[in-house]
Amino acid sequence: MAAPGTCGVSGMPYPRSKFAPFFSGKVDQDVKDFLDEYEEKVNENNLTDTQKVETVIRYVVKTQHHIWKSLPGYIDCD
What is the C-alpha to C-alpha distance for residues 5 and 11, in angstroms, rounded to an integer? Predict the structure, then answer.
């Protein structure tokens, strides 16, 4: 959880902490739920669109990084 008044990437929860969103890539995990939770955290910390894209894979299981990096939204930083 971010400290009050903390903004930017440094204010985001440490990956795999109990306060961090996490996407395991398992079939039973809804990507929309993950993205909603992630969006809430990045908005609390005032991340730019580019920071949102660059930071998201910190919260995705490593075996999924190549998939996320290949998505048009990731490539376009949108």
Answer: 9
